[in-house]
Write a structure and sequence with these properties.
With 191 residues, the protein is mainly β. The protein has a single domain, classed as Lipid/polyisoprenoid-binding, YceI-like (Lipocalin), CATH 2.40.128. Helices cover 9% and strands 51% of the residues. The radius of gyration is 18 Å and the shape is globular.
């Protein structure tokens, strides 16, 4: 977040900045990557956690931080999941979480935002921008909690984060693509 935006979020009038926690039961982080250069393999992570400091008068002054446990990876194949958790990829024992911390939020019109921040995977931090769409209006659930939802996506090169393992194919090319599309569906609960 820019200095002026950070200052604005920290000095907003009392009651305008509220805290929202990620609801892990209703949130998911998914990815897709090319396999053998012919089709996509998809997977997901569960157990997301994090907090949104929402400036209710101007969402662009908000701040979000999130964490995703790397050992929660699931691609539908136990052997592949084990390999992805190993030192060849995420090294989940050494790097138990991926994190994101926003730095700047810009409105793209309507319920859509561009959220720039630092993404840390495998101990490497890079700046990324999430295209955040369909930010819902806060609404009450049947149990009296106030919720807010959104969807977001970005594309990264896994090698930029030190995830460099690959295997050459006899027919040419490589087993695992470099570009990874990340999709998020997040639900927040007002604290």
């Amino acid at each position: 977040m820019t200095t002026s935006a950070t200052t604005a979020a920290n000095t907003a009038a009392p009651g305008t900045v509220t805290t929202w926690n990620i609801d892990p039961a209703h949130s998911a982080a998914e990815f897709k990557v090319k396999h053998m250069m012919i089709s996509n393999v998809k997977g997901k992570f569960t157990g997301l956690s994090g907090v949104l400091k929402l400036d209710e008068t101007d969402y662009t002054h908000s701040v979000v931080e999130a964490s995703i446990p790397t050992a929660s990876i699931s691609t539908g194949d136990e052997k592949r999941d084990g390999h992805l958790k190993s030192a060849d990829f995420f090294d989940a024992e050494k790097f138990p979480a991926m994190t994101f911390k926003s730095k700047n939020i810009d409105s793209e019109g309507g319920p859509n935002y561009s959220v720039a921040g630092d993404l840390t995977i495998h101990g490497v931090t890079k700046s990324v921008t999430l295209a955040v769409e369909d930010v819902s209006q806060p609404s009450k659930d049947p149990w009296g909690n106030t919720r807010l939802g959104l969807s977001g996506s970005t594309k990264i090169n896994r090698k930029d984060f030190g995830l460099v393992w690959n295997s050459a194919l006899e027919s040419g090319g490589v087993l695992v693509g470099e570009d990874v599309t990340i999709s998020l569906d997040i639900q927040f609960v007002k604290a």
